[in-house]
Design goal:
Blueprint (H helix, E strand, L loop, with lengths): L2 E3 L6 E7 L2 E6 L5 H20 L8 H11 L6 H14 L11 H13 L4 H20 L24 H11 L16 H20 L3 H5 L6 E2 L4 E6 L4 E6 L2 H11 L21 H9 L9 H12 L4 H8 L4 H4 L3 H21 L2
Helix pairs in contact: 2-3, 2-5, 3-5, 6-10, 7-9, 7-11, 11-12
Length: 355
């Protein structure tokens, strides 16, 4: 038996050669008989893999962990971690991934639906499992054929703000507004004033650029050119950059903020870092404005809708929003259709008037 002790450890180590390759690992035990049995099991497993064609097995949890680790540094890594915690809670992650069944996945889908989770979220949850399963197969682990549940996404109307709703919303965000729990403006401390200014200014940029929240909240001054009135917006989600021209009120906001800039970021937290996802005050303002059916992402829909309603086509809006695929922009297709049919009406009316 190749069971050895090292001077720097009280545990036994397993060490042997097989097919010209040296294998060594800690048994993590001080029990010699247990370590010897571990060596026998390990040799048997390696023999089956090398000579009998049997593939190594991996648990579902380990497969999820390895896949998530492989995506560190990518924009969706945080989402993978969130989805992983849900999988750990509702799936038998102790099982080997080749033991996972369609029934396990259907039960997971049912449990998430019973929790009141939307179809799109469940689809993201299951996509993590699918990706971990494919990743395990790519690495050579033993996997089985697995049929994943289908998720039918319910169609919902595209929510965007009217001009009147935008006025109400901005009034509820006005940094100088009064209200319960707010001191008179002149008596407020600097931190409170700054927080209220940040929320209002951030919303102005979201409305007038159509950018995603994270793209604006984490933007640096190096991406802002006040002289040319341009913003070089890095789209981390789709890994591309768009040059946007500032509206008058965006230029006014950024010019004012530039006079008191104190760091790298346009919107920064108390420690001087990027603002991150601090959206409580904005979501509260939506509720106070009677817009509880709106989300922060509705501001992006608002921008796109207004562009199309005022004559821009889907391909132009695709560039503004930074979509990598026109299919994503197609959610606004019905708005463009209305524009086209109204133009057709105007053409016919003009021709008829000439007769």
């Amino acid at each position: 038996m190749s069971i050895i002790k090292r001077s720097n450890s009280k545990n036994y180590f397993i060490q042997f050669q097989l097919n010209g390759k040296t294998y060594i690992r800690s048994s993590r035990t001080t029990n010699k008989k247990l370590a010897e049995q571990m060596e026998i099991d390990w040799k048997s497993k390696l023999h089956a893999q090398q000579f009998l064609g049997q593939k190594e097995r991996i648990t579902l949890r380990a497969a999820i962990d390895q896949f998530s680790e492989s995506k560190q540094g990518t924009p969706n890594h945080r989402g993978l971690i969130t989805n992983s915690k849900i999988a750990y809670r509702l799936l038998p992650v102790h099982k080997f991934i080749d033991e996972l069944t369609a029934h396990d996945l259907e039960r997971f889908k049912r449990d998430r639906m019973n929790e009141g989770v939307k179809e799109q979220t469940i689809k993201h949850n299951l996509n993590l499992i699918r990706c971990a399963w494919k990743f395990a197969r790519k690495l050579g682990y033993q996997v089985n054929d697995l049929e994943f549940p289908t998720i039918k996404l319910s169609k919902s109307s595209l929510r965007y703000l009217s001009i009147d709703e935008e006025r109400r919303f901005l009034a509820c965000l006005d940094p100088k507004r009064g209200g319960r729990g707010l001191r008179p403006y002149d008596e407020r401390d600097l931190r409170t004033k700054q927080a209220m200014d940040d929320a209002y200014d951030l919303v102005i940029l979201l409305l007038d650029t159509g950018a995603r929240y994270s793209e604006v909240a984490n933007i640096t001054w190096s991406k802002i050119n006040l002289e040319d009135r341009t913003i070089n917006l890095w789209r981390s989600k789709v890994q591309n950059e768009t040059t946007l021209y500032m509206s008058d009120r965006v230029h006014e906001v950024l010019l004012r903020r530039s006079l008191t800039r104190a760091g790298v970021y346009v919107f920064q937290n108390r420690k001087g870092g990027s603002r991150g996802y601090a959206s409580q005050s904005i979501r509260k303002a939506l509720r106070n404005a009677g817009l509880s059916d709106c989300k922060i992402h509705s501001l992006r829909h608002t921008h796109a809708t207004r562009l199309i309603q005022n004559g821009m086509n889907l391909y132009e809006v695709k560039e503004i929003l930074g979509h990598s695929d026109i299919k994503t922009t197609m959610r606004y297709a019905h708005l463009e259709s209305r524009q086209v049919t109204s133009k057709a009406r105007d053409v016919i009316n003009r021709l008829n008037s000439m007769q």
